Amino acid sequence: MKIVTWNVNSIRRREAVVLDWLQANAPDVLLLQETKVTDADFPRAGFESAGWHLALHGQVGGRNGVAILARSPIDAVTRGLPGEPDDEQARYIEGRVAGMRVASIYVPNGTRVDSDNFAYKLRFYNRLMAYMELALESDRPLVLGGDYNVAPEPIDVYDPKACEGGICYHPAERHALRGLVHAGLYDAVRAVAPTRRQFTWWDLRGGAWERDEGMRIDFLLLSAPALDRLKNADADPGTRAGKGISDHIPVWCELA
Questions:
Q1: 54 touches 68 (CB < 8 A)
Q2: How many domains does the chain have?
Q3: Could you read off the pLDDT of 164-214 as tens digits, one per residue?
Q4: What is the rounded (10 degree) CA torsion for 163, 166, 172, 175?
Q5: Composition of the chain by helix, strand, coil, percent to 5
């Protein structure tokens, strides 16, 4: 089973790019973030006509949004994380595909470390951690794909000294991400290539791509039963050089 995570930064703007990539790469599951549409406005027709099953969690106002696309039917769908009943941001969706539990996660960016948005980001991580502690009690393989908006290690940012203490490389964020790992989740790409330097996000402005000033903030995190089935994992930087691209690239893993 090939599972892909991809922050597409607006599915309506990237529909053709995503459909072309799916046809060329033939994954079994695609986990989308930042779809930026309500469920009613998601461009279902093109994906369904290509044989994809959809589970959607959009948000009024065209912000955030996550989705699961799969070649097989998706059941047992859960939308949102417990812990903040008034939270209306669409950032988590989970489902079951061919016996595998998969989730698409869009962690808040945080904006500035002195902002309410940053406090919300840390609370979101705490809620995700609490939920995963229960979810990992199951022996069913679990794959959590998403834009985690944190670069965990110096190798994951273009300039560790310049990035230290800023958004996506703040110690409190890195600590929160490590908590998921310590709870029993494994970074698929790092399990395959512990020292590979491969960013997954570059700012669309200012020539960041051309200078390779990026960060690795998109991951597929695997439970131990999923890790036991891991065959390979990587990212596809070629998508970042095309037309109509997102600022993120697809990250994929293949499970036996």
A1: yes
A2: 1
A3: 999 999 999 999 999 999 999 999 999 999 999 999 999 998 899 999 999
A4: -30
A5: 30, 25, 40
Tokens of 1: 């089973």
pLDDT tens across 228-247, in order? 999 999 999 999 988 889 99
Report whether 65 contacts 88 (CB < 8 A).
Answer: no
Q: How far apart are CA 192 and CA 145, in angstroms?
A: 16
pTM of the model: 0.97
Domain that holds residue 198: 2-255
Contacts of 14 (CB under 8 A, 6+ apart): 8, 244, 245, 246
Structural Rg of the chain based on CA atoms: 17
Q: For 95-111, b where at least 16 C-beta lie within 10 A, e where not — what string?
A: bbbeebbbbbbbbbebe
CATH code, domain with 133: 3.60.10.10
